[in-house]
Structure formats: structure tokens, C-alpha cells
Amino acid sequence: TPEFQRLRDIKQLGGTAFVYQSANHTRFEHSLGVCHLASRWLDILQAAQPDLNITDQERLCVQLAGLCHDLGHGPFSHMFDAHFIKDSLPLGEKWNHENASNDMIDHIVKTHNLAPALQERGLSVPEDIDFIKTLIAGQPRIPGRKEFLYDIVANKRNNIDCDKFDYFQRDTLHLGLKMPFSADRLMHCSRVVTVPYPTSNGNESSGGTNQQSQQVIAFQEKEAYSVYELFQTRYALHKKAYQHRVGQVVDLMHCEALKLADPYLTIPSGDGIGTVRLSESIRDMSAYRFVTDAVFSLIAVHPDPRLAPAKAILDDVKARRLYAFVGETLVQPHHNIGENVSPVAGNKRNASQMTMAQWKPGLPGLDDIKSAVLTLCNDSLATASRSNNEENLTVTCDD
User: Fold this and answer.
1) Hey, which residues are catalytic here?
2) Which end of the chain is less crowded, N or C, counting CB atoms within 10 A of the terminal residue's CB?
3) What is the three-state SS of the chain?
4) What is the pTM of this model?
């Protein structure tokens, strides 16, 4: 559909392409990659554990979630939602590209009348559409659905998912960096196991349901270092590329250009009569489908003289007249974040639960740090599933 093809015009790494010249890949190929890896991971799990009974309908839902998870991205990807939209919304209102991805799915199904085609392939509409949208958001989990399927595309428990597998490989390739861990090996060394719902005090919890346990994707104990390398890769990408000073400055300047252009640059609305501003397009998917990196070229050639300040900023970027870096400081947390070791209830080996924290400058408190549970199983994973013999490693990391 045109709504999916628009991802060809949205750079995966935004301003980072001004630092690493080959980093011009787009959200389009990334989305195809996540869809492929999600399907591959399901194949591996089903082959190793036929009793999972993954249906064709569940497989299609996970594949569509991988394919559509980034439909909501705007110009320069994260710059648009993390800076431009965030600063444009009324105080207290929140929005992210996952919200827009789900809105775009509804728009595509309705506009292109896809319900009959989806039903021909065994999907229930709107039930499976809602399932796909929760797979993209990672939550809330729909009761009755296989819980481990939520670990495939957008894993909110520990952030190990196909989205990371693809962009780690794709970004390091285009950035010319090395990726030390093997996503394919991790997938082959994973199994679905049944574990208690974790709580902060170590007790089992129903997790908001009547169930006392949940099915999750676990990794063999011998792959613990591979998991470490995965998060180390993420850290290295942020340190060397995503948070590069020049890339951040380019994003900032493009963001300021959008803010200056926003009152005067409008897009035809979905009703075909009125128009909407860039900052308002997120509420109208018919208009939002035209909001891509091409908006910067539109600003550059637009005849409206009121866009001159925005054009000047874009000209400065192209001429490499970038904002100067003044300095930086390390913000120390006000809380004592250290290693907290406590017994894990229900574990026959009395394993330990270790909490590690990455403090992100600017976070107001510990509530902003997400806790994620990573299950590592010793011996064979099939045996671990039956005996509940596992180790839980809790890792907190920023989103």
C-alpha cells in the first residue's frame, strides 16, 4: 500500500547519515527484515517444540506486526516523535510512533478494504487486528493469546526481540561497525518455558490475571555472554552513532526547521476539504502518510516567504554551518543504584536476582527506568520447562 511504501522515504538513522555517509538505509527495508526474522524465529521454536502448536493465523499476525511496527515513524524517524511532536503537544499529552503505527493499520484496513482479504487468510476482524496492534505495542497482553508471541517483535520484558536483531545487524553494516553477537545463534538457542509471574519482592503474582505462571522465550545458560554482547552492541551503537554530537546537532537543526515551518506549511486533510499542520497530521492518517523526509525538500522550494527562517536552517545544514558543541556534564543520580542480590522464590537452585541499572541523564527518578526479566535455563531447555529450573536475571535499561 502507499502507506507502507512511504517508509522508503524515511531514513532509519536520521541525522546520523550526516556523520556516517553510508547510513542512508530506510525504515522500509528494516520493516521487511523484522518480518522475516519474526517468521524465522517462529519456525525455529515450532521445529524444536511442536507442542507449541503455533497456528498459521498466529504466524501471520506476528509477521504483520513485524511488517507494520514502524508505520508510524515520521521525518528523520525518532527526531520527529522524540523532539518535534513532543515539543508541539500540549503539556502532559503523550504520543509515540507506536500509537501512529496502530492508527495507520486501522487506516490501511479501512481505506483499502483489507478485511475480506485478511479473513480469506484465516484472520478474524477486528479481533486479530487488535492482537497485531498489541504485538506492536508489546502491551497490554490480550488474555487467551499465547504470551510468548509478545516476545517476538516488541519484547517489553527484556528488550530482546526481532526489532533489535534486525536494526543491530542493519545499522552496524551501514555504519561500518562490527556486531559481536549472532542473532541467529540466539534464536536457535531459545525455547519457550513456563515461569512464575515475577514481582519486585520475589513472590509469584498473577500478573493481573488468574494465572500463576506465564510462557516466555528463554535462552540457554551458555548464551548468557551472547546476551551481554547484545546489550553491549546496543550501548556501542548509541555511544558511537546514535548519540554522536554531530548527528544530534543535525537532528536538532532539522527539528527547529520543522517548528518554524509548522504554522505555515499545511497538508490536505483526509476529508479532502481542509488542511492540517505538520504537528496536527498525527491525528489524521490520510494526511500523515505524506509526512516523510521529503517535507524538508518541500520547505526548501516552497514560495511562502514566511518559511525563510526554516529554509535558512536547512541551508546551514547543507553548508555544514552546524551549531557548535559547547560542553557536556555527567548527571549523577540522587539514588544509590547498585547491585541488589536477593533469592528468587520458587527456584530449586535458589538462584539470585541481580538488578543492574543504566542511568540516563535527565531522568527525574528511578520510576523512569524499566525493569526487564531475562530467563536463562541450564541443561536442556525442554527439561527446564518441566522442572521450572531457571535463573532470572533482572536487567533495567532505558527504553
Assistant:
1) 97
2) C
3) CHHHHHHHHCECCHHHHHCCCCCCCEHHHHHHHHHHHHHHHHHHHHHHCHHHCCCHHHHHHHHHHHHHCCCCCECCEHHHHHHHHHHHCCCCCCCCHHHHHHHHHHHHHHHCCCHHHHHHCCCCCCHHHHHHHHHHHCCCCCCCCCHHHHHCCCCCCCCCCHHHHHHHHHHHHHHCCCCCCCHHHHHHCEEEEEEEECCCCCCCECCCCCCCEEEEEEEEHHHHHHHHHHHHHHHHHHHHHHCCHHHHHHHHHHHHHHHHHCCCCEEECCCCCCEEEHHHHHHCHHHHCCCCCHHHHHHHHCCCHHHHHHHHHHHHHHCCCCCCCCCCCCCCCCCCCCCEEEECCCCCCCCEEEEECCCCCCCCCHHHCEEEEEEEECCCHHHHHHHCCEEEEEEEECC
4) 0.81
